[in-house]
Amino acid sequence: MNNPVTIKIADLIGSSLCISAEDGQKVFEKIKPLIQEGRTVVVSFERVTMLISLFLNAAIGQLYGTFSEEEIRARVNVNGLADDDLEMLKRVVDNAKRYYANPKDYDAAWSQDKDNNDEPDEK
């Protein structure tokens, strides 16, 4: 009954370019309910010619805000990534785990840094 569901990224977003957060969000919204149902998901990057971390943050990184690392490891498999893209995915996952472990502190630090950068320079 629990045959893996394969999500072909290029087909889902209609492009071989994985470069927008909006497209990453489409992937997240496809994966999330499947994991909630207890399904195993294979995320296929076959035919993807460009991939950036912004896309991966939305598609995969935000899963760590909803599910435990153990659940993601058990339910989500990725294939079709080159070695350098696998390294990028690992960085995205590591950053997501750190962020979702304490999002309030990260948001507060980001907000403070943003406020400091918005101040006009004194001459």
Which tags fit this structure?
123 residues; 13% strand; three-stranded parallel beta sheet; alpha/beta; 6 helices
Outline of this structure?
By secondary structure, the protein is α/β, with parallel strands linked by helices. The chain has helices at 9-13, 21-36, 53-59, 69-75, 83-101, 103-118; strands at 5-8, 17-18, 41-44, 50-51, 76-79.
Q: How many domains, as an integer?
A: 1
Order of helices and strands: EHEHEEHHEHH
Strand order of the largest sheet: 1-3-5
Our count of helices gives 6
Determine the fraction of residues in helical runs and give it as a percent range.
55-70%
Notes on the protein architecture:
- The structure is a single chain.
- The protein has 123 residues and is α/β, with parallel strands linked by helices.
- The protein has one domain (5-118).
- The chain is built from six helices and five strands, in the order βαβαββααβαα.
- It has a three-stranded parallel beta sheet. A two-stranded parallel sheet has the order 2-4.
- The model has no long low-confidence stretch (mean pLDDT 91).
Fold topology:
Elements: E1 5-8, H1 9-13, E2 17-18, H2 21-36, E3 41-44, E4 50-51, H3 53-59, H4 69-75, E5 76-79, H5 83-101, H6 103-118
Parallel strand pairs: 1-3, 2-4, 3-5
Helix pairs in contact: 2-3
